[in-house]
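Hi support team,

I submitted a single chain yesterday and got back a structure, but I'm not sure I'm reading the token output correctly. Could someone confirm the output below corresponds to the sequence I sent? I've pasted both exactly as they appear in my results page.

Thanks,
R.
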Amino acid sequence: MNYEFKNLKKFKLSNGRMGISFFYNEKRFRYFNSSVIGENFNPNTCDESSKEKQLDLLYQSFFLKLEKGWRPIEEKKIKKVKPIDIKVIEGVKICYNNKINLEYSKSYKKDLTIAYNKLNDFILCRKYQNLNLSDFNMNIAKDLINFTSNSKRVQLNSKRNYSALLSDIFKEYKFENPFPLIKLVKTEEVLHKPIKEIKLVFDELEKFNSNLHLCCLLAYGCLLRPHREIRNLKWNDFNEDCSQISLAGNRNKGKKNRIVPIPLFIQEYLKRGNDENNIFTNTPYPFNEDYFKTLWTKYKKVSQLIKKENTLYSFRHTGAINVYEKTGSLNKLQQVMGHGNLNISLTYLRGLEVKQLSVDDMPDL
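Hi R., thanks for writing in. Yes, this is the structure output for that exact sequence:
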């Protein structure tokens, strides 16, 4: 094998960069400056008038070094071998850091953070610091869920959150995610109670607080979500005559662009302000996340009409019942609610006091 250098020459690339090249040990080497041989020639940092001279000096410096026995050091490329397993405690941290930086809602990130902290507590408590992901089986997953809470509802939510948190690392290392395989006892469905005497409630709200009154009107009449969608509304979300609201996909839970007509009984309460201002604060910034929740709690204590089971979302539920009973269309309900698909709308209807079947719908002879 020939270890001598050969074909030392100058070159110039199409982008204007220039340097020298030569062959050694049947491999080509290219250099754009002489730092590797302890010199300071660099034609690519000079002005146009000095480039050719610097290139000549670069060529001469390499020729002399090569003649005196200098040879380039061949770097051996080390092939990175992907590990076939990972410690659970390390995998959890990677998954959490990746997901927490994505554009999820604050409530979802809060759920992931709770799951992450609880999982770390579980690992320390059970002394699983050296547990490999390949050994994280269904029995350990069940133990984690039971460790989290005795409440069936909390267990169901925790199972979903743990599965979501760890799904990426199970896929990456090609291990089965045990959480979807676990069957838990389902909790009884909660029936969302609509608000009775809705007009009287709005009259009472108007006297109590104008912001809460408008929030509840928009939840009922436009079926928007109070805390994330309504609270963050700006005047540029409305068209010129305030007859329509347009929300981009990143502004609503369904992740789809949403256009909602505004009923006349709401339009009379909308007094348009600066486009960039929030409709409640008249500044570019919304109220804090608990603003309407706090107002609702105070109102509920003094109201003569609101029932114990009613929440701010009851206005949205009541509006949904109204739309479905008027149109009988699941597609229209999905559209106005901003649901991602029809299955969500069907599930939603099951939780409402909506008459979906009548005697006339049943088989006859």
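A quick pointer for reading it: Residues 88-181 form one domain. Let us know if anything else looks off.

Best,
Support desk
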